[in-house]
Specification:
Keywords: Repeat. InterPro entries: NHER, PDZ, PDZ_sf. This is PDZ domain containing 3b. It is a single chain. By secondary structure, the chain is an alpha+beta fold. It contains ten helices and 20 strands. The strands form three sheets. Strands 13, 14, 15, 16, 17, 18, 19 and 20 form an eight-stranded mixed beta sheet that branches. Strands 6, 7, 8, 9, 10, 11 and 12 form a seven-stranded mixed beta sheet that branches. The longest helix has 10 residues. The radius of gyration is 23 Å and the shape is globular. The termini are far apart.
């Protein structure tokens, strides 16, 4: 199915979560700049295949640079100099480049970008076009985000949800909820449509396979749903429905953003690189001093470090993280998550920092290290 403007080609066999789109050349000169939607899907451990300069506070749009030949960005039709307006349905032109880079990093294996080419972006600015209104007009005002709902089984009424295949629609299911049941309390609504179950996209599932998944889910299940009207708009606009777009409901774990101010004796915690029984290594926060800046910020022993001052620690060495902390000045920003929380998001195939709370010190979350996290000490630094 092709769009009316001839800009994209849509392959419905790929499902609503990953429409295959390819940009085609257009010789039409448009008086009003028109943004275009691109869906990037990276394979394995590859990146999205472009750079986003983050060195300046002021910018002339979020400019894509160094688009890799054969990479995910180029495969989708993007080119060097394109300007990013939205990341996963979130308007970003007014955000700092570092914030946009974080949203891209947290997107997972797929990324949805609303883009103007460089010339169209400059023309829009010269015409005084409201870029946010331009983006909103492209996708419509009635578009609601999907919901990511975690359901805990009730001992008597169970999960309180049932899925029915839509007639003549392979891989599409409507949702029926028990009034007052566990699913409804978790944010699932009657006549929602099911998109995703415990990390599996349902467009690839038969009703029989979905039923088997439900029987094996145990006492908990996490699903992504969307109201049927919004789903129709997503499909018409060829916008994929991704977890990174979802509003979380009843999730048992969240990453937390901690703000620390350096004290006379530092921040008051120990950073340790530890190897778990699974063989993976993580940077654990340990030995939080009583009354220290770390404790005042809400840090607890056994949390795992995800970011330092907006930079992911995934590819950093222990020494590099320590340098980032010591060179941060009087203020330090950390994103952390509990070990059970990390396991939860890993099993779902989602980035653990995707749903981050800025102030969650009073959340009732088990931040103790589970038995699976019994560790060997690798490197230790007092900070």
């Amino acid at each position: 199915m092709e769009s009316n403007g001839g800009r994209f080609v849509f392959n419905p066999k790929e499902g609503i979560d990953n429409p295959a789109m390819t940009a085609t050349d257009s010789t039409e000169q448009e008086s009003t700049p028109r943004p275009h939607l691109y869906v990037l899907r990276r394979e394995g451990d590859e990146g999205f295949g472009f750079d986003l300069p983050t060195g300046t506070e002021k910018h002339n749009g979020h400019v894509m640079r160094n688009v890799t030949a054969g990479g995910a960005a180029q495969r989708s039709g993007l080119k060097d100099g394109d300007r990013i307006l939205e990341v996963n349905n979130c308007y970003v032109d007014s955000l700092l480049c570092s914030e946009v880079a974080r949203k891209i990093r947290q997107s997972g294996q797929q990324l949805c970008l609303l883009v103007l080419d460089g010339e169209a972006y400059e023309r829009a600015l010269s015409q005084g076009v409201d870029l946010q209104s331009l983006a909103r007009t492209h996708k419509g005002n009635d578009l609601k985000p999907p919901r990511l709902c975690h359901i805990t089984k009730h001992p008597d009424s169970g999960l309180g949800v049932h899925f029915a295949p839509l007639e003549g629609e392979k891989g599409r299911f409507s949702v029926n909820v028990v009034a007052g049941g566990a699913a409804e309390k978790a944010g699932v609504l009657k006549r929602d449509h099911l998109v995703w179950v415990d990390g599996a996209v349902v467009s690839h599932l038969t009703h029989s396979a979905l039923s088997k998944m439900m029987k094996k889910c145990g006492n908990h299940i996490t699903i992504m749903v969307i109201d049927s009207e919004s789903e129709m708009i997503y499909r018409q606009k060829k916008i994929p429905i991704l977890p990174a777009m979802a509003v979380p409901h009843n999730l048992p774990f969240h990453a937390r953003k901690l703000h620390l101010s350096r004290g006379d004796e530092g921040y008051g915690f120990v950073l340790r690189l530890e190897r778990t029984v699974s063989g993976r290594t993580y940077h654990f926060l340990r030995q939080v001093d009583r009354g220290s800046p770390a404790e005042e910020a809400g840090m607890t022993d056994g949390e795992i470090l995800l970011e330092v001052n907006g930079e992911s620690v995934e590819s950093l060495t222990h020494a590099e993280i320590v340098d980032r902390v010591r060179l941060s000045g009087e203020k330090l920003s950390l994103i952390t998550i509990s070990f059970p929380g990390l396991e939860f998001y890993t099993k779902l195939g989602l980035p653990p920092e995707l749903f981050c709370e800025d102030d969650a010190a009073n959340k009732k979350e088990d931040k103790s290290v589970s038995a699976a996290a019994e560790q060997e000490e690798e490197e230790v630094s007092v900070l």
